[in-house]
Amino acid sequence: MKRRPSNWAGYRGNQTEYVAPQLRWKDDGIDTTIGYSTDNRRIAPPAYTFAYRGSVQEKPDQLLGDRSDGFEVQAQNFFYNFEKSLGRDATFHSKMQHTELQLALRMKSPLGLAGTDTIYYSNTHSENKTTSTVGDHYVESKLSTGPITHKLTTGFSHDDTEYEQNEYDSPSALVQPYSPYTFSRSEGTHYSLFAMNSKQMGAYAVDMLTWGDVNLLLGLRRSRYETESSVSYLTSGSRRDTPKQAVWETTPGIGIVYNLTPSISTYANYAEGFSPQLGYRMCEGSKAEPMRTKNREAGMKFDLLDSKFSITTAAFSLEQSNTMVYSAAGACYTQQAAQKTKGLELDMAGELYKGLNVLFNTTYSTVEDLSGSKLEFAARPKYKASLWSTYEFQSAALRGWGVGMGITANDKSWLGDKYATSTSDPVKLSGSARTDASISYRQKDWSVILGVKNLFDRELYDFATTTSYVPLQQGRTATLTYKVKL
Length: 486
Known about the structure:
Layout: E1 2-3, E2 15-19, E3 22-26, E4 30-43, E5 48-49, E6 51-52, E7 55-56, E8 70-85, E9 90-113, E10 119-145, E11 148-169, E12 173-175, E13 189-211, E14 214-233, E15 238-261, E16 264-275, E17 291-304, E18 309-321, E19 323-327, E20 332-336, E21 339-353, E22 356-369, E23 374-376, E24 383-392, E25 401-410, E26 413-414, E27 418-419, E28 428-429, E29 432-442, E30 446-453, E31 470-471, E32 477-484
Antiparallel strand pairs: 1-2, 2-4, 3-4, 4-8, 5-31, 6-7, 8-9, 9-10, 10-11, 10-12, 11-13, 13-14, 14-15, 15-16, 16-17, 17-18, 18-21, 19-20, 21-22, 22-24, 23-27, 24-25, 25-29, 26-28, 29-30, 30-32
């Protein structure tokens, strides 16, 4: 259980109550785990500011909302994992999970600029309920065909979800955030009820083939997704139903790894995916096509220093298609080409020498609008990098003590999409770097770690897609963690 009286932004603090008992039975042929968890949380909104006159403004001194604003989450989860040996070379796996989730959101939400220094606020109040049952059942088997060994996985998965969203209509307001203002308290009028039932089923097969220094992964999945929904407008008494719609899709995947030496390998993979977009009212009167993705990646892996340190390099490309575009004139949707992300990535991890561990990642990526209307996307910096290093002292006098330090950095990003036809650029969010540190003391059965985030207490911003809501990262924060092995 965790409670905080208030968060950095001034809202009533976060609260977590979590209980998760489990029971496991295992013998020579069967391994079964059943469990239950209950998770009650309150999550306070972060501090935020705005951007106008071409730059990001200072954080307002006043609390723009109520101290009780935030998210309230209640979740219950039941699950089982079952494994049964089917002989020396095959195992049956069955996993199922039933989740009941309730989410309540009460927040004064900035929706957009209504003037040079005026923000349009919505008194947001919604309550959501989701009930889902998810399962995955498959057989893993090992076999050989001549010199080739196979690790074959075949199975099916299913997902049955019911979703309900209640929206409440509350008064909106025009607010000058740097002048004193008091928000009205209102629960609002129950405005609408949206309900949706969805079902997913899929059968799949994955085969890992090994022949000498070559590993080849082949995968194929056939999926069916269906949904039906309705929305009732309670104040007017009207209702709109979207009849049941279904879509089938086949998604392949392939990957290959070639071991050049015992410590150096090269790899490449290709995978397709899809996300159904059912329930939209299309301008052409047809059914919306799923959003489809094509993911390509190639790189090399280096296993160094007697497997204590590894380096991975990668070049990747992710292409999305069939983006939904709303037409206000017809109150309907059309579809267009989406975006293509290309980039390079470098990962390094492990022990450089005794006591010194390093974890490093850097990514360079660009996003291309395949429709040609956008030059750059909001909240998409080209460069990202993170470095975390720890050192555990080796001398007898300091044995058990350790220190750590890390830096997380990113390039500039835009507060809004940059269009080819625009005569001016959106507001630019400058690049930033945050420094974290830690000091620890460990013994065989217990440990204490003092961690400090944003060590130099810099004013830093998270990525944002709009000028009316620019979230701030938390200032210098210290956390003391004590662990005991029972």
